[in-house]
Design goal:
single chain, alpha+beta, Immunoglobulin-like, 3 domains, 5-stranded mixed beta sheet, 39% helix
Length: 343
């Protein structure tokens, strides 16, 4: 990785975190589950900080206190404590041991209680179910519905309604990943061949960054996701827009771009509803123009970044599974116009 490329991706990450989003932090909880985790964190912090300070104070006191002379403890001449000293030390050690056990039980009870509370959100309200599948190195997101025509598919971005619980069904297509949006919930592993679940809920509108929290290969650090919480009516409008087929080209350049897309290897991996492109092994591009980022949170979704990503994906994200297609110079610009129009 060249220094210039490192600085470029770092700057893009700074831009993504600063453009209207919130910091990715477990100490900025925006939902009931994350709130319980944050409360547990503060409880552990203050209790263990108090214990640390008490231990440091006791150590300093023992090192600096004025010791009694040998005349006051005749038995110390042969290194044997007096009966009074031994009795006092026994009481201190026994008290400290009992207090340690009580503190450990308190921490255990607080941790178990929080873990139990995190699993009790969903049944209390009517929520929605979203399937999230981890891939090296991007997220497949599918909104489940009993009516197959109303299922919504997107990638690397999840919209949720404010105040409604969302059950996530988590699985993986390749290696173990871990879904983590710290402002909304803790980590949950995505394991091939197994479905794990967790509930998230947002208290207010906003945008929060999530990422894979389990090392899953060389581009593990560039496997991010944005979770966007919206008011109910705005969320429903987004869902209806996502269910619509792809926008038809409205200019000669966009029409040319669609032909470029359909006549190259893009169609073997990507899907665009309303076109012959029916690939299922890469992100769905039906509404790619409306997404915040490219390459799973690696770059802001701009025309220039999209062009660089298509022209040389291995330079942006080495080791990713996107094939490099050598397009004639006159084909890239129309292709970008077409993909940018897919909102």
């Amino acid at each position: 990785m060249t220094r210039a490329r490192t600085l470029f991706i770092w700057a893009a990450a700074v831009a993504l975190n600063g453009c209207g989003g919130h910091q990715q932090s477990a100490l900025d909880s925006v939902g009931p589950q994350a709130g319980k985790i944050e409360s547990l964190w503060w409880f552990f912090l203050w209790l263990l900080t108090a214990i640390f300070l008490i231990v440091i104070f006791a150590t300093l006191w023992a090192l600096t206190r004025r010791h009694r002379g040998i005349e006051q403890e005749p038995l110390e001449r042969i290194h044997l404590p007096s009966g009074e000293t031994e009795h006092r030390l026994t009481r201190v050690v026994a008290g400290a041991s009992i207090l340690t056990v009580i503190i450990l039980f308190a921490l255990l009870i607080a941790s178990v209680t929080t873990g139990k509370a995190l699993s009790e959100l969903g049944p209390k309200k009517q929520g929605i179910t979203v399937e999230v599948t981890g891939n090296q190195w991007w997220w497949y997101v599918r909104y489940l519905n009993g009516d197959a025509s109303r299922i919504v598919v997107t990638a690397n971005e999840m919209h949720i309604p404010v105040g409604r619980p969302v059950m996530l069904r988590l699985n993986s297509n390749d290696v173990i990943h871990s879904f983590w949006t710290p402002n909304l919930h803790g980590k949950r592993d995505l394991i091939p061949g197994r479905v794990n679940t967790e509930w998230i809920e947002a208290d207010h509108p906003g945008r929060w960054r999530g990422q894979c929290a389990e090392f899953c290969g060389m581009q593990h650090a560039h496997m991010a996701m944005w979770v966007i919480a919206e008011p109910e009516d705005q969320f429903e409008r987004w869902m209806e827009a996502q269910r619509a087929p792809s926008k038809q080209p409205s200019s000669a350049s966009e029409l040319r771009g669609r032909d470029v897309f359909l006549n190259n290897a893009c169609v073997f991996c990507h899907h665009i509803a309303g076109t012959p492109a029916a690939g299922q092994v890469a992100p769905d591009l039906t509404h790619v123009g409306s997404r915040l980022t490219l390459a799973a949170g690696t770059l802001p979704n701009t025309k220039g970044n999209l062009g660089g990503w298509i022209a040389d994906p291995q330079n942006v994200k080495p080791g990713n599974h996107m094939a490099q297609i050598d397009l004639p110079p006159g084909d890239l610009e129309p292709l970008l116009d077409y993909l940018e129009s897919l909102k």
